[in-house]
Amino acid sequence: MICGIVKTKPAKQYPVFKIVLRFIAIAAIVLLRNPIEGQIGSIEMNLWLAQIAGIAIMRLRYNKSNDIKIFTFFYTIIITIFVTFIYTACEFYDLILNWYDLNSLTQNSCLSLTHLAGLVKILNALYKLKDIEKLLDKLKFGLKTYTISNEQQQKFHDGEFETKLLLIIYTAIVATTGLLGMIILFLNPFKMAGKTFPYRAIIPSWVPLPLQLLYMSLSVFIFAMQIVAIDYLNINLINQLRCQLNILNLTFDKLCIEVEQQNCYSSSSSSNSSSSSSLMIDAKPLKSLNAAIEHHCLLKAVCQDIEGIFSATILLQFFTSLIIFAMTGFQATVQSSASNEAVLIYFYCGCIFCELFLYCFFGNAVTEQSKTLPMRGFNSSWYLYDRRYRKSLLVFLTNAQQPFVFTAGGFMDLSLPSFAGILSKSYSYIALLRQLYGR
Q: Residues 173-227: pLDDT tens digits?
C-alpha cells in the first residue's frame, strides 16, 4: 500500500512531492511493529521525538547503551533548564514590563501562554510518568491478547500508518513555522529580537547579540517540538484507543461470519437435525464473546486512565487556545498583511488550529466509534446461540451503552462542536480587542 502511494503519477511530475512521500513511507516502514508482540511503532516514534526535544521520558524508552543513557540525562537537564524554564521566565519578564501596551501585551501573550501551557503539560507528564507507563502496558496487553485475525492486524497497521503520517505532518507544520521565524530573526535582528512576535523576551544585555539571537531562535524552536511531542502523545493514546475499538468491532463481525459458515455446514450435512441443536452450536462463540467483554473492560479502563492523566491539562490547553486565537487574530488585523510579522502570525495560528483540531477530532472519533459497539454486539446473531451466550451478551450491551467520552477537565467534551465553539468565541474576543485598540 505504501509503495503504491509513492509511485503515483503526481509524485513523478513533482520531484519534491515524491521525496516527501518517500520519506513518509520510509518512516512508516522503519517503525512498523508487530501487534501480536504488543509493539506500537507510533508510540515509539512519538517518544523518540520527545527525547530529542529534551523531555525526560527515559523511563518509557528502553536504551541498551549506558553511554546513551548518560548523554540523554545531561542533554535533558540542559534543555529543561535553559529552554523550558529560563526562556519562559524571560518571556514573562517582558510581559510584566509591557502590560500597559495592548499591542506589546498581545504579541507577548501569544507565545507566553503557549509556553506556559506547554510547561504545565510537560510537568504533568513527568509527574504521572508511572501512570503513563502502566497505560502503555495496558494498550500493549490489549494488542497482544485480542488482535488475532488478519483483518484485525490489518486494521491496526492502517491505524498506525495514519497516526505516524499525522505526526509527521503536524511536526513538519510546526517545524516549518519555527524555521521561518529563525530566518526572519537573523535577517532582521534589531527589529525582531526582544521586540516583535514570536521573540518577545528580555535577555540580559551583557549577552552578545549573536548569542541572544541563537538562544532565542533555538529556544522557541525546541520548545515548539516539546509541545508537539507532549501533545501528540495524548492524541496518540486516544487514537490507539480508537484503533482497538475498531479491533473490538471486528470481533463481532467475525462472530457473524462464523455462525453463517456453521449454519451452511449444518444445513448441508443434515437436513433432519432438530432446531434445538442449532441453538447450541459450540463453545467457541461464547469464548470469543467473553474475550470481547474483557477487551471492552480493558479499553474502558484505558479511557479512564487517559482522562485522569490528561484531562486537567487539556482544560488549560483549551482555555489558552481560546485566548491565543483571539490574540493572534487581533495581531493579524493590526499588522500589515505583507509584513514578516503577519506571515509568522498566520503560520502560528495554523499550528494552534492543528493542535486543537487534533484533540477534538480524535476525541470525537473515539466517542462515535464506541457508540457503534451495542449495535455490533446486537447484530452478532445472538438468537442462534444458547442462554449462556445471551446472558454474556446482555452484560456487554449494558456496559456498552455508556460511550467513551474525553473531556477538558470535566467542563466540555473533546468533540467537533466544542472546537467550533472555541473558534466562535475567539472571533467575539477579536472584535472586543479591536474596539479597545481603536480607543
A: 999 999 999 999 998 888 888 888 888 888 988 989 999 999 999 999 999 999 9
The alpha-helical segments, DSSP class H, found in 270-339 are 284-334
Which residues are CB-contacts of 86 (< 8 A; sequence separation ≥ 6)? Answer: none
Q: How many residues does the chain have?
A: 439
Instruction: Assess if residue 137 is contained within a domain.
Output: yes
Q: Is residue 303 part of a domain?
A: yes
Residue 9 belongs to a domain:
no
CA distances, 72 to each of 120, 127, 223, 239 (Å): 22, 19, 17, 28
**Cβ neighbour number for residue 367 with a 10 Å cutoff:** 18
In sequence order, which residues have a C-beta less than 8 Å from that of residue 10 and are 6 or more positions away? Answer: 17
Each residue's pLDDT tens digit, 67-92? 777 888 888 889 888 888 999 999 89
What is the end-to-end Cα distance of the chain in Å, rounded?
59
Distance of CA 354 to the CA centre of its chain: 10
4 pLDDT above the threshold of 80: no
Element (H, E) at 47: helix 41-52
Answer whether 135's CB lies under 8 Å from 306's CB. Answer: yes
Cα gap 132→138, rounded to integer Å = 10
How many other β-carbons are positioned within 10 Å of the β-carbon of residue 157?
18
* Grid cell locating 2: 505504501
Identity of residue 164: K
Q: Give how many domains the chain has, as a whole number.
A: 1
Contacts of 314 (CB under 8 A, 6+ apart): 234, 359, 406, 407, 408, 409, 414
Range of the structural domain that residue 227 is part of: 41-259+284-438
Q: Which residues neighbour 121 within 8 Å (Cβ) at sequence distance 6 or greater? A: 227, 230, 231, 313, 316, 317
Cell numbers at 210, concatenated = 549573536
Residue 408 lies in a domain: yes
Q: How far apart are CA 118 and CA 272, in angstroms?
A: 70
Sign of CA dihedral 1, 235, 426, 438: negative
Measured between alpha carbons, how far is 231 from 174 in angstroms, rounded to an integer?
Answer: 12
| Cα(18)–Cα(168) distance, integer angstroms | 15
Residue 364 one-letter amino acid: N
